[in-house]
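Page 37, continued from 36.
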């Protein structure tokens, strides 16, 4: 590995600043997401997430913090070696339950359980009525290195466009996705790639387990600032990179592929962090800027192991899809989310969870130990 050009930059509050009209943006974001949830609830009679509604894998595993980390990496959750149970949820981005032939970007949410430290919710007063404080750290990731929009205001514009297509012409969406997949394939054949085409339904029909997932937006990393990456490293898992999945006539083909894999295989992912080393080229307030790995590589801090198990079931869906929420704001103060995208999403995650829990009647609570984890 080439020499790292400079040390990580300590966090300074001046690196964050509120976007013009940010509070109005947050209000409109909540209204838009609530509209998505209300539409899908009216259609299906079941309350789901405003985005990332459909799960393809619901997994349980163990996170092991690596030993001997350099001081700048030994921060927060990763400050010392230890092992923690995790819940993992693999999803795709729309707020409506679409046929998997409508191929869109994928998400991976990881909930680490039993994490020591002061929870952000405690500072906000959210745990004031809880019998015991939460003890979790969530990492919410997507299979692309940068966020779709630079700022919260731009994100709102793209979300309104997505909301306008909710529950509209699913057959047309499938046909359009086929066309867009062809366009993306042609672009990739000449060395290109289009996040726009993928986001609209042109994502290649590949196995969700072979993807590398990114936080896209930064979090506090102890004394520093970082982005997070989850990389498949076990041979069977790594072999699924770009592996095609047959979705012909299989509306839940991605889910079937996950279930088939975990029927007999163990999966291992590596958790890596990319430290901010230059605030000008690695900004907090422009989520569309990719932090170049030649300036600051992703470095391993932990591994997640998921043994053979039931990869998805109705029982798991009730426990995790209906009974849990995943948000970067579930976590310890050492990993507080950073930037305008993260700030406005805080209220959005809370609203989406509240909408679901009020209609499903499921009691919302964070797991506090392995005894709270779902059993298939």
């Amino acid at each position: 590995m080439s020499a790292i050009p400079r040390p990580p930059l300590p966090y300074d509050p001046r690196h964050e600043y509120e976007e013009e009209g940010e509070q109005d943006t947050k209000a409109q974001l909540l209204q838009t997401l609530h509209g998505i949830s209300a539409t899908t609830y009216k259609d299906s009679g079941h309350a789901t997430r405003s985005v990332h509604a459909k799960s393809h894998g619901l997994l349980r595993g163990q996170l092991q913090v690596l030993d001997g980390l350099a001081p700048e990496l030994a921060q927060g959750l990763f400050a010392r070696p230890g092992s923690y149970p995790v819940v993992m949820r693999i999803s795709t981005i729309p707020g409506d339950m679409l046929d998997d032939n409508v191929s869109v970007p994928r998400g991976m949410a990881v909930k680490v359980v039993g994490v020591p430290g002061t929870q952000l919710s405690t500072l906000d007063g959210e745990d004031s009525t809880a019998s015991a404080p939460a003890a979790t750290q969530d990492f919410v990731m997507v299979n692309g290195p940068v966020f779709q929009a630079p700022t919260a205001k731009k994100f709102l514009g793209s979300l309104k466009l997505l909301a306008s297509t909710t529950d509209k012409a699913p057959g047309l969406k499938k046909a359009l996705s086929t066309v867009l997949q062809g366009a993306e394939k042609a672009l990739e054949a000449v060395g290109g790639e289009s996040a726009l085409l993928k986001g609209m339904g042109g994502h290649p029909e590949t196995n969700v387990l072979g993807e590398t997932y990114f936080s896209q937006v930064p979090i506090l990393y102890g004394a520093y600032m970082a982005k997070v990456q989850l990389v498949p490293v076990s041979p069977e898992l790594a072999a699924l990179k770009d592996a095609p999945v047959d979705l012909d006539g299989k509306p839940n083909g991605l889910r079937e592929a996950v279930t088939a894999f975990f029927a007999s295989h163990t999966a291992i992912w590596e958790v890596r962090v990319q430290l901010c080393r230059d605030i000008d080229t690695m900004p907090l307030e422009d989520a569309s800027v990719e932090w170049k790995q030649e300036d600051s590589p992703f470095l391993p801090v932990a591994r997640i192991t998921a043994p053979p198990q039931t990869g998805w079931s109705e029982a798991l869906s009730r426990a995790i899809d209906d009974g849990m929420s995943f948000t970067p704001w579930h976590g310890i103060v050492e990993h507080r989310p950073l930037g305008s995208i993260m700030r406005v999403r805080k209220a959005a995650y809370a609203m989406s969870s509240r909408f679901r829990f009020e209609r499903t009647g499921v009691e919302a609570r964070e797991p506090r130990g392995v005894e709270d984890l779902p059993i298939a």
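The beta strands are 55-65, 83-92, 106-113, 136-142, 213-214, 219-221, 224-232, 267-275, 299-306. Flag for discussion at group meeting. The first strand starts at residue 55 and ends at 65.
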